[in-house]
Amino acid sequence: MCHVIVTCRSMLWTLLSIVVAFAELIAFMSADWLIGKAKPSSSEDVDNRTGGSQEPYHPTLGIYGRCTRISHMQFPRRDTLCGPYAENFSEIASGFWQATAIFLAMGIMILCTVAFVSVFTMCVQSIMKKSIFNVCGLLQGIAGLFLILGLILYPAGWGCQKATSYCGPYASAYKLGDCSLGWAFYTAIGGTVLTFICAVFSAQAEIATSSDKVQEEIEEGKNLICLL
User: Fold this and answer.
1) Are 225 and 2 spatial neighbours (Cβ–Cβ below 8 Å)?
2) Whole-angstrom Cα distance, residue 6 to residue 225?
3) Position 40 pLDDT exceeds 70
4) With DSSP H G I counted as helix, E B as strand and the rest as coil, what are the percentages for the chain, rounded to 5?
5) Residue pair 147/196 in contact by the 8 Å Cβ criterion
6) What residue intervals traverse the membrane (predicted)?
7) CATH 1.20.140.150 describes domain 4-33+93-226
């Protein structure tokens, strides 16, 4: 018989697991890892309402994507175009970034799997007599290690030709040059920290769902058990 067990700690762990997976996925897909040096506005970049020049813009560069401003042939207007600069894996700008993409993708796949499984922990608390919370916590710890490896390798690729075109000739491995770090990089770091917090907190979720109070309510024949 399936017992639906809901506790504050298990629900908090589930929500954090989902948030971490989405945060890492969004960061990985974003082009806002590096913010390039400001590009000066040309004489065509004129604000139609004020007649003055628009402010210089900052192109952005991600692991496999970029955002830049393009001009229209028929109109004195410029739009920002975002998309992948690499059509396949081998075209990613740096070997270090290729390794980063692999490690981050592996970590994110594990996190997404755990996030999906965590939704069903209200009904299923064990797999082959092993706590599903402990198994998921172990997987989250492994995912966190993959994410750390990816984030450590990522700055080593700042000296590639693609990065120097955005960050200037002084950019090199672990040196930003004229660039600055974008929100995606910080989101990835924050998600990695939360990944390890989730891994540790999974033990608390397991304790909460296997407590004496839960067992007492199961013995009383309750199918829906909600505890603070």
Assistant:
1) no
2) 6
3) no
4) 55, 15, 30
5) no
6) 12-35, 96-120, 132-154, 183-203
7) yes
CA atoms of 195 and 130, how far apart (whole Å): 21
Is the pLDDT confidence value at 64 over 80? Answer: yes
Position 8, amino acid? C
pLDDT at 143: 97
Tokens of residue 2, six digits: 């399936």
Q: What is the pLDDT of residue 145?
A: 97
Residue 93 · residue 161 · CB < 8 Å: yes
Euclidean distance between CA atoms 47 and 75, whole angstroms: 12
pLDDT for 164-201, tens place per residue? 989 988 989 999 988 999 999 999 999 999 999 999 99
Angle formed by the axes of helices 8-29 and 132-153, nearest 10°:
30
Q: What is the pLDDT of residue 109?
A: 97
CA distances for 57 relative to 179, 180, 217, angstroms: 13, 14, 61
